[in-house]
Amino acid sequence: MMKTLYLIGGTMGVGKTTVCRQLKQDLPNSVFLDGDWCWDASPFQVTEETKAMVEDNICHLLNNFLHCSVYENVIFCWVMHQQSIIDGILQKLDTRNCRVQSISLMVDEDTLRQRLMKDVQQGTRTADVIDRSLPRIPMYRQLDTIKIDTVGKTVQMVADEIMKLK
Fold it and tell me: What does the pLDDT look like over 31-50, one tens digit per residue?
């Protein structure tokens, strides 16, 4: 059986997790990993050691999913704002008999600001996320990924667009 691995990146607040949850429901025999689940620490510390640890955690779980005969669709999301992050993960994965779809969810500044402010108001994010997320938008244009604009689209519309990729 040919599996599909979906690598879905985008800046904080673009809708990665929400879209991936929808994909998990819509795609047959699917499993979903959010990279943030592999690095949920307090305090959150970005060091060479923690970066290596999270990548190892991610690759270990993704390889287990890829090797499990039950799953035909493996869905992964993370910020992945640099090509080296995507390449580093892919180099450590066994993608034989696997089609890889590397996707960046795109958004404009106004829409992203509105989405993040809503999250801040709901208490699911802190206000500093806006200043960290907005500057990353242009970084995704440089990546070797399929770009999907999320502006003005429902979660289902974005998920449908991803499922139509060949």
Answer: 999 999 998 888 889 899 99
DSSP state of 127: T
Q: Residues with Cβ < 8 Å from 48, sequence gap 6 or more? A: none
Cβ of 145: how many Cβ atoms within 10 Å?
A: 21
Scan for tokens 């307090």, then name that residue.
42
- Per-residue b or e along 117-130, where b marks 16 or more CB atoms closer than 10 Å to that residue's CB: eebbeeeebeeebb
- How would you label 30-69 residue by residue, b for 16+ Cβ within 10 Å and e otherwise? bbbbbbeebbeeeeeeeeeeeeeebbeebbebbeebbeee
Asked if residues 107 and 141 have their Cβ atoms less than 8 Å apart, the reply is no
Beta bridge partners of 9: 104
What's the pLDDT tens digit per position in 50-100? 999 999 999 999 999 999 999 999 999 999 999 999 999 999 999 999 999
Question: What domains appear along the chain, each with residue ranges and CATH number?
Answer: 3-163 (3.40.50.300)
Alpha carbons within 13 angstroms on the beta-carbon side of residue 95 total 16
Evaluate if residue 150 carries a pLDDT over 80: yes
DSSP helix/strand/coil, 34: strand
Mean pLDDT of the chain: 96
